[in-house]
Specification:
- It is a single chain.
- About 50% of the residues lie in helices and about 10% in strands.
- By secondary structure, it is α+β, with helices and mostly antiparallel strands.
- A 5-stranded antiparallel beta sheet has the order 2-1-5-4-3, sandwiched between helices.
- β1 (about 125) and β2 (about 130-135) form a beta hairpin.
- The protein is elongated and about 75 Å long.
């Protein structure tokens, strides 16, 4: 991936989303051909020269200092996640490693112990490309019961949550507010692409989704970045109906995401989740019983 070009695209997109009145820039009633701040206005707010900022947006400048990046982040009113993404994009050329195919991601022993400890609580472990590296029985039942439960065990056949969200009808129907879920997936991939600009498998995934899903292409062009954290979704499960599910994301030392799905105690959602988990476990127990 061309990190200088992507840095420029990120800056340009964020600049176009700021109105002059948002940052106290006087316009004196002048008519603007495009929305958002002009390059020279943002450069003035950040305290850098207009020509240097223009080169940054055009992908013609490199080695922007941390101080300049922080000044641009402040002028653009970036949040912490977007600020980190800006720094990651700017440092992409300096940490470039070529000629290597990334090794398959693996779940560490401590993470597997965490998944086992959570028991009946649905859990997924996602890699940096949103590949499902592991799930427990409940996690498989909640998110992808239509797929083989041993899918994560083979690296080349692992389900990918981004593909499922955009290209799989079952997963799309699972979320009542599908666009909100889709935007979250895109923002997470955007952050990953900033930290791993030379990952060929990530680049291939982004290219595939851009070609196969016009909705992904549109959302990807928005350059949103996600910090992680907790999100509550209304999920419509085909077996137990509607549930409000909080998806909490924990980060491991290997930069893997442990996604834990919980419901409010005493709520109808908790009852539905309990029914789903127990029915799946009971069904699995029946299948493993020896026949007479």
């Amino acid at each position: 991936m061309n990190t200088r070009r992507r840095l420029g695209e990120f800056l340009q997109t964020r600049r176009s989303q700021l109105r002059p009145e948002d940052v106290g820039v006087a316009t004196y009633g002048d008519r603007r051909r495009v929305p958002g701040l002009r390059r020279e206005e943002l450069a003035m707010l950040a305290g850098v020269s207009s020509s240097y900022y223009a080169r940054l947006e055009q992908g013609q400048a490199s080695n922007a200092s941390p101080e300049v990046l922080d000044a641009l982040a402040g002028a653009l009113r970036l949040d912490d996640a977007e600020r980190r993404h800006l720094h990651a994009l700017a440092s992409g050329d300096r940490r470039r490693v070529t000629g290597r195919r990334p090794a398959p991601e693996r779940v560490g022993q401590a993470t597997r112990q965490l998944v086992d400890t959570l028991g009946d609580v649905p859990v997924l472990v996602l890699g940096r490309r949103a590949d499902v590296l592991a799930w427990n029985t409940s996690g498989h039942a909640l998110y992808a019961g239509h797929l083989a439960p041993d899918g994560p065990d083979t690296p080349r056949q692992r389900p990918n949550m981004a593909r499922l969200v955009f290209l799989d009808a079952h997963t799309r129907d699972l979320y009542a507010d599908w666009p909100a879920k889709a935007r979250g997936v895109v923002a997470t991939l955007r952050s990953a692409s900033g930290h791993h600009p030379d990952d060929p498998l990530l680049a291939a995934l982004l290219g595939e989704l851009t070609v196969k899903s016009p909705e992904f292409a549109t959302m990807w062009a928005d350059h949103r970045v996600k910090a992680g954290g907790d999100t509550v979704y209304e999920m419509r499960h085909p077996l137990v109906g509607t549930m409000w599910v909080a998806q909490q994301t924990l980060r491991t030392a290997d930069d893997q995401a442990v996604v834990v799905a919980t419901t409010e105690p005493g709520s109808p959602s908790r009852a539905a989740m309990t029914l789903l988990v127990h029915s799946v476990l009971a069904g699995r127990a029946r299948r493993t019983q020896p026949t007479g």
